[in-house]
Structure formats: C-alpha cells, structure tokens
Amino acid sequence: PSGKRNVSGAYVQDKLTWEWLEVITGLRYDRYSLKDSEHETSGDRLSPRITVGVSPFESADLAGLQFYGTYAEGYRSPSLTETLISGNHPAGVTFPFLPNPNLKPETGKTVEFGVNFKQNDIFEGGDALRLKAAYFNNNVEDYIDGVTLSAFDPTSGCPFGPGIPICFQYQNFAKAKINGFELESVYDAGWGYAGFSASIINGHTISYEGERADLATIPSSQVTAQLGLRFLEDRLTVGGEVQYNGKPKGNPVAKDYTLVNAFASYQATDNLKLDVRADNLFDVKYTNPLNASTTAVLYEPGVTLKLAATMRFGG
Predict the structure, then answer these.
(1) SS3 16
(2) What is the pLDDT of residue 12?
C-alpha cells in the first residue's frame, strides 16, 4: 500500500573547553507523521546529550590521552518500509510480508565510557595515530524488529499462501538491551593508511509479556581491517578491506562470514570525484543479519560492483 511519511528535526549543540576538561552538550527535537489510506500516526520528542572528556596528562607522550563519558537519548520513528511493507518475497524462498501501521517510535537511552588517544609525528613527520576503546550500554523502549510468524498459528494473522508457511512483519518489543565493547585504530602516514576495528555485541529483546529473546538482527562480533595507498599527489586512493561478522545469537539459521572488498577513489578535478568499489570479491554466500529470517536462509548478492561520480558546483 502507498503512504506518506514526514520527518523533521532540529538540534542545538555547544562545546566548552578548558585546559584539561571538555564538555559537549546538545538537545535535539524530532517530530514525525505517517499515514496511509486508513491509518495516521504522529509523535515528537526532545532528546538530550552530554559528553564529558578529561585529559589529565601534560607530558608529550600522554597529552593526547582522553577519558570520556557520554549520556544520550534518541528517538526513531518507524519507517515506511517497516509499517507498510507488503507482498511476497521476490526471489528464492517465497513468503508474504505483512504491513504493520500501528508501530510505535523507538526511544533509546545510551551510556558510553571510553578512552581516546591521538598522537602525531610518531615514526615520521606528518604521520598520525588515532585509537579509541569504549563500552556502551543502550536501552531501547518499543524496539522495532523483524518477526517471523507461522501460518499454523491462528493468532498470528499469517495466511497460508504460495511458498513456505511463514510471514515476515515488523513489530514492537517492550524493550531491547544492547551492550558491548568497541575498538578503533587508524594510522595515517600521508602516502597510505591502515585501520582496524573490532566489536563484541550482546543484545536481547523483552516482549510486552516479559519474554526474553536474543536479538536475531545484530552480529555477535565484528572485525574490519582496511589498508589504503595514495598516489598522484594524493588524488588517487586504492585499497582493500576484510570484514568478519559473527553469527547472531538469536538466529539459528544464520552463520558467521568473512568478506573481502576493494575500492578506489580518484579526485579528477577540484569539483569532480570518481569512486569505484567491488564488494564480496570471492562471491561468498552469506546472510546479512539485518535482512535475515530466523527460519529460512536468505542470501545477499555475490560480487557487487558500485560506481559513483560526485560533482560539486559553485566553487
């Protein structure tokens, strides 16, 4: 079915800095409205955010070390896809999608603690090292997630039809709790750079009836390593990356997988940039947790080539 969604937002942010202390405060206002031929819903919310960073060391070796903490609230309205999706899955395994125009918006509260480190001129003049390690805890109310329904359950609203006897629908859960650890590092030598990131993620939902279930739409772990080289006075960048995604704890049919990708970027002129990217170079058969079903294996595309051109006007 057709529908219309309006989303608007505004925010204000301020940053205060002293010799060893940094405070960033912000406030965001979000509003949305969504309607189709039979339903209409809307909502709004103010969401605060504050980050406090402390840099206690003055020595040259440790001057770039900062400890920080963040508290933030967020608001996400349901999308058109989540509320009005309908029809049958187009390829492979066939099953229906069910719309849900009664979805509520998500509200989240996040606490994050971590450490940042930055230092320049480590091995040679002009190089730079950036490190970040963090722990995060995210609590979301009315969490939106995809649910697989059985046609054999008369209360599910899932009809029998072509293909397997299941349906897919987005529904609200009373709460979702997501926490984990993140590590990011980048070394840039000017003529090239190397990056590494890793995360360990735990997540579960709690239904309105109090039932707890592991999240099926987030990987249990992620690791990415990237390498890039610059040529032609830094106008050309070529590189590659390896991405590992761990098996989601709440998805019995999904598996972990590793992808190898390559990319290149060329700044042809001051106003024209060309990009090319090849994903999944080794044609791995994998399922993306964000798009996966918990009962049927739905594979993502194989080798994928992407081309892009960016033109800037006005100097």
Answers:
(1) strand
(2) 98
Instruction: Report which of 279, 286, 285, 287 is spatially closest to residue 303, judged by C-alpha positions.
Output: 279
The structure tokens listed for 282 are 């080794």
Give the burial class of 102: count Cβ atoms within 10 A of its Cβ; 0-12 exposed, 13-18 middle, 19 or more buried. Answer: exposed
Mean pLDDT of the chain: 91
Structural domain boundaries of the chain?
1-87+96-144+178-214, 216-315
283 touches 304 (CB < 8 A):
no
For residues 70 and 107, what is the distance between their CA atoms, to the nearest angstrom? 17
306: Cβ–Cβ under 8 A, 6 or more apart, which residues?
Answer: 275, 276, 277, 278, 279
CA dihedral defined by 10, 50, 64, 116, rounded to 10 degrees? Answer: -90
Q: Classify residue 39 by burial, with Cβ atoms within 10 Å: 0-12, 13-18, 19+.
A: middle
Q: How far apart are CA 286 and CA 267, in angstroms?
A: 33
> How far is Cα 90 from Cα 288, in angstroms, rounded to an integer?
17
Contacts of 28 (CB under 8 A, 6+ apart): 9, 10, 11, 46, 47, 49, 75
Cβ-Cβ contacts under 8 Å for 284 (sequence gap 6 or more): 257, 258, 259, 302
Which whole-number Å values give the CA distances from 169 to 36, 85, 147, 172, 258, in the listed order?
17, 8, 5, 10, 28
For range 190-213, the mean pLDDT? 93
What global pTM score does this model have? 0.83
221-231 and 87-88 beta bridge pairing:
unpaired
Apex CA 222: angle with CA 221 and CA 228, to 5°? 165
The closest of 194, 290, 279, 309 to 250, measured between CA atoms, is 290
